[in-house]
Amino acid sequence: TYKKRWNIEQGHKDLREYVEKELTALGFGLFVEKEENRGNTLVSLLGNDKIDTKVIIKRLDSEYNYSVAGGQGEYVGKLMRVGCIGELTKEDIVNLVNAIKTIVSTM
User: Fold this and answer.
1) Chain-centre distance of CA 34, in angstroms?
2) pLDDT tens digits, one per residue of 66-107
3) 47-54 CB contacts, 8 Å cutoff, 24+ apart
4) CB 27 within 8 A of CB 52
5) Helix 2-25 to helix 90-105 angle, to the nearest 10 degrees?
């Protein structure tokens, strides 16, 4: 139904906004700068001189069993993509964000 679909869409938006808020505060940049151009299923985050997305992605997989996609082409090692769709809960996303914070704190 429409109401159920809206609740799902709003939930994805809430998760996306949480990831953006927490990780930009940590120093990540947003690949899609304009709010109106962002989708609610994926957050594309740019690293910088202090934040190596390639290392973060590898450590998320090996130490936390999280799967986060990297960038492609000229963005390999510079970008990571966090999904906010599927049967994810706020707790799942909070745990992922906390793992990223832990990793970044050691860089």
Assistant:
1) 16
2) 999 998 899 888 899 887 666 777 788 889 999 999 999 998
3) 47/77, 47/78, 47/79, 47/80, 50/107, 51/26, 51/27, 51/104, 51/107, 52/77, 52/107, 53/77, 53/78, 53/79, 53/80
4) no
5) 10
- Which pTM value belongs to this model? 0.81
Q: What are phi and psi of 18, to 5 degrees?
A: -65, -50
Distance CA 80, CA 70 (A): 4
Give me the torsion for CA of 74, 79, 80, 85, rounded to 10°: -90
